[in-house]
# Entry
Amino acid sequence: MIGQLNFPELWPLWPTLMAGLWVTIKLTVLATVGGVSIGILGAWLRSGPPNWASRIWGVYVELIRNTPFVVQLFFIVFGLPNLGVKLTAGEAALLAMLINLGAYSTEIIRAGIQVTPKGQWEAGRVLGLSRTQTFLRVILPPSLARIYPALVSQCIIVMLGSSVVSQVSFEELTFAANLIQSRTFLSFEVYLVTTLIYLALSIVMRQVLLAAGRRMFGALA
# Structure
């Protein structure tokens, strides 16, 4: 069985895999920054007094957390055009990842806020800060420090989930692997290499984000 493997035949097609990897990295960076930003906004809305905005955001969070990512992606790609919203495959992939990570990061960040002593909110008011200023300057930094490892894990899950966007012909890493497999029929070799690339990307991404967290928040639990 080992003698039948033909890894050298993949070498000429390595640039195709690297091009797909680069697309995955760019997509992940944009989705991580945007998705966490959405989560911070959502956590701010949901940590305040109940109102129509927090209730609508709560519906969004529950809808996304209780439906498969691939269904969300297909709805954006195939459903939105019926409403007159036409997106490229890349735009649809990014939007789906933003919406997905935004919902999950909302709840992760909100969990960190919920354990914040109420005295910190009161201290902000005593100092004359608005609710938004208190949230950004007093509440958010220690809350992010508490949940940062969990947030990093969620970002990695979304990165790995980006492989699904190959189903809408977006030319990221998994799409490149499928293309090479269809041309060479070296299924084992192609997907083993692709698996190792995803593994390396996950490890590097985790270490980079945790290092950034240590720089921002100090030692992480």
